[in-house]
Design brief:
Strand content: 15-25%
Bound molecules: uridine-diphosphate-N-acetylglucosamine
CATH superfamily of the domain at 2-181 and 234-265 and 305-315: NAD(P)-binding Rossmann-like Domain
Radius of gyration: 19 Å
Mean pLDDT: 97
Number of helices: 11
Oligomer: single chain
Strand order of the largest sheet: 3-2-1-4-5-6-11
CATH topology of the domain at 2-181 and 234-265 and 305-315: Rossmann fold
CATH architecture of the domain at 2-181 and 234-265 and 305-315: 3-Layer(aba) Sandwich
Order of helices and strands: EHEHEHEHHEHEEHEEEHEEHEEHH
Low-confidence stretches: none
CATH class of the domain at 2-181 and 234-265 and 305-315: Alpha Beta
Distance between the termini: 38 Å
Number of strands: 14
Structural class: alpha/beta
Length: 337
């Protein structure tokens, strides 16, 4: 089975390629290297013993997408990661986000429609729920007005796919990720943030290694037990495996709707201070941090009800927060050597 993985050299994409190859799939990666590196291919090969096919293609170039499907006529399924994902940048430059995340999705779906392809997995985000009123969040929680152009591209992406699936052969699974962290336990691949990390865990590991002076904790006056915000941190390898089972469901025609949606998280919420304490424990370091004002646009808490993924996909997150943070730390230590 040949699977196309767009953005396959990125953080979640590369871990998913490893799990796909471990399950025997033949993978074609396309990536424009805008936020990734060719060295990731070597990491994937060292873990799996196999180098995936790679094409340096920018999905914004429609002709390249058409040529790709001519070159690889036997693609059985597509997992679509390629997208920009920095919330702040999307506020500064919304058109970049609408072009990178929406135009590309349209071009890809046009090709799938033209070639009568059927199986499509989309990277969505728990950001579509905004501040949900009940925890844990089920897939039935209402989608709320997006707080950033980035978040809006995930909502619009879900709508586009739903509209297209109604009138084409396309069947899709939308995976709404909670907060992906960690790295492959081999430390051959992991997260490679460009510049100053915006996300919590890469900022923590870069602080612990001495690249950053201290972590700023954004707010300790939230209505939570310790006053800091709560998220559902999921090990990227668990998240990667969710893509494989979702894909298998489509390939085996087990889906019951044209478009199915699943929350992918651990089901457990952790506060920022809990993440810091757990990190200090697994890394045996003392993390310098200070409390600062809340970050604009942050929700108080978000953690998943994963019953649907557990029962329908037969998937459950396996790793603990300790394991995920330990893997992130091992990776950080390796890349700074
Ligand atoms: C963010 C995005 C989300 C996106 C996800 C993946 C926002 C508002 N949300 O999720 O849409 O899908 O990244 O890229 O940007 N924190 C600190 N100090 C830091 C960094 C983070 O205290 O230096 C706190 C945040 O306030 C938050 C938690 O850590 O409570 C997690 O933050 P982060 O890793 O940025 O993820 P989200 O904001 O949940």
């Amino acid at each position: 089975m040949k699977i196309l993985v767009t953005g396959g050299l990125g953080f979640i994409g590369s871990h998913t390629v490893v799990e796909l190859q471990n399950e025997g799939f033949d993978v074609v990666i396309i990536d424009n290297l805008s936020n990734s590196s060719l060295e990731v291919l070597d990491g994937i090969e060292r873990i799996t013993g196999k180098k995936p096919h790679f094409e340096n293609i920018d999905l914004r170039e429609k002709k390249s997408v058409q040529d790709l499907f001519v070159k690889y006529q036997d693609i059985n399924g597509v997992i679509h990661f390629a997208a920009s994902k920095a919330v702040g940048e999307s506020v500064e430059n919304p058109l970049l986000y609408y072009e990178n995340n929406i135009n590309t999705l349209v071009y890809l779906l046009q090709e799938l429609q033209a070639k009568q392809k059927t199986h499509f997995i989309f990277s969505s985000s728990c950001t579509v729920y905004g501040q949900a009123t009940t925890m844990p969040i089920t897939e039935n929680a209402p989608v709320q007005q997006a707080m950033s152009p980035y978040g809006n591209t995930k909502q619009i992406g879900e709508e586009i796919i739903t509209d297209v699936a109604k009138v084409t052969t396309i069947n899709a699974i939308l995976l709404r990720y909670f907060n992906p962290i960690g790295a492959h336990p081999s430390a051959e691949i992991g997260e490679l943030p460009i510049g100053i990390p915006q996300n919590l865990v890469p900022f923590i590991t870069q602080t612990a290694i001495g690249l950053r002076k201290e972590l700023s904790v954004f707010g300790d006056d939230y209505p939570t037990a310790d006053g800091t915000a709560i998220r559902d941190y999921i090990h990227v390898v668990d998240l990667a495996k969710a893509h494989v089972v979702a894909l298998q469901r489509l390939l085996e025609n087990k889906n019951t709707e044209k478009v199915e949606t699943f929350n992918i998280g651990t089901g457990t919420g952790s506060s920022v201070l809990e993440v810091i304490t757990t990190f200090e424990k697994v890394s045996n370091t003392k993390l310098p941090y200070k409390i600062v004002a809340r970050r604009e646009g942050d929700v108080i808490e978000a953690f998943a009800n994963t019953d649907k993924a557990n029962s329908v996909l037969g998937w459950k997150a396996q790793s603990t927060l300790e394991e995920a943070l330990a893997s992130a730390w091992k990776w950080e230590q390796k890349i700074r050597r």
